[in-house]
Amino acid sequence: MEWHLSQGPESCMGILALSYRDLPYFLKSCFLYCGVFPEDCEIKASKLIQMWIAEGFVQARGEETVEEDVGEDYLEELIHRSMIQVVKRKWDGRVKSCRMHDLLRDLAISKAKDSKFFEVRGNIFAYPFNPRRLIARDSQNISQHLSNCHRLRSLICSIHIPQVNFWSCLRSAKLLTVLNLTLTVNPDLKRPLPKEIGEFIHLKYFRFLGPGKIRFPWSIGRLINLETLDLQDNFYLDIPFSIWKLHQLRHLYLGGYTILRMSKRYQRCFSSHLGIDKLTNLQTLHVERLEWVVSRGLPKLTLLRKLYIYGPNMRSNSSYELIFPSNLVELILDGCRLKQDPMLTLGKLPNLRALKLINDAYIGKKITCSSGAFSQLEFLRLNGLTDLKELIVEESALPSLKTLQIYSCYQMEKLLHQLQKLKSLQQVKLEDMDISLIEEIKNIEGEEFDKIRLITSIT
pTM of whole model > 0.85? Predict the structure, then answer.
């Protein structure tokens, strides 16, 4: 396929069309959907798969199978057939991001147009106009056309218009399942987004990006079918307590500075009546500040695979408060400023395979991986722990560790002899470290250190 793509558009479009025709029926929709992203766009794989699932393109293969895993298989099959290109892979080899070749994207858009799979519009709208999926970028006059879009199931757009007009005009799309909205005008800081948001009860995927403070109405709690709520790229969020009613949520991303707004009715029952423990279908949770998870509710999220926590706990920095679900696979602590070594708690998680402590997540001088701890951990990154001086690996700790990355831990002094204890280690990356530590690893002599030198990358 790659050789044919290099031969020019006219000579390979026919071959590309044959490749598309040869796709299984369940992959054709997935391939066409990739055309909704801008040219040369680096597509986040998790986002793409979540949108596929919301559209109904991905079907679980049995009660034991998670749709997200099936979606990853679909993506890998498209990559194997050279219909999608890998940009980055994760620590475990899974796809992190991908893109479409320009010619393949042209093919997807052409096939989508022929089959009325989706419409791509700028500021010009032709009549009759009632698409099933609409991609409208930089549209200034989209609002007046949305009132007739009764068939609309997916909307991906950027708008420059007053938000109230947009939401009121969109009300006709009662069956909307995917909404990816970028707002390029600053909302009124004194008013929440319109309550009409709560009318889209069939919505499964909702991503919203806007400048300034974004204040959501209480009606967001009516989106009872919502599976993905992505507010990660917003600077300031004001979220109502009704978010805990979204029991179908699988992926929750909250970025920036997030306020959880409670009514007087719920102020006395934060931990017992409604809370994070109600979102029992969560697989991914991205939150700012430890207060969101420092509670007894987190261990009840038995399906949670990935947890990202950014920012310090404003009430306490004691590591004993960090009680995580035993099924957690990946954990990222960013800027949490923990005072006690978290490894005693984290090392007991039986399914943890990746751990990242970054940007002063821990502000102590010593990290200790106790004997027998981290039985399944394969990937460990320590980045920007500016007070850390020593990593201690006790006997039989980290038996499965394959990759160790240590960046910008400027005060770390002792490492070489700890690396020797990691028998499964395949790769070590060191960057912006103390010069004496680097020189010790570079210049150490002896056959017992040969492996360490071979697998270590220093920049």
Answer: yes
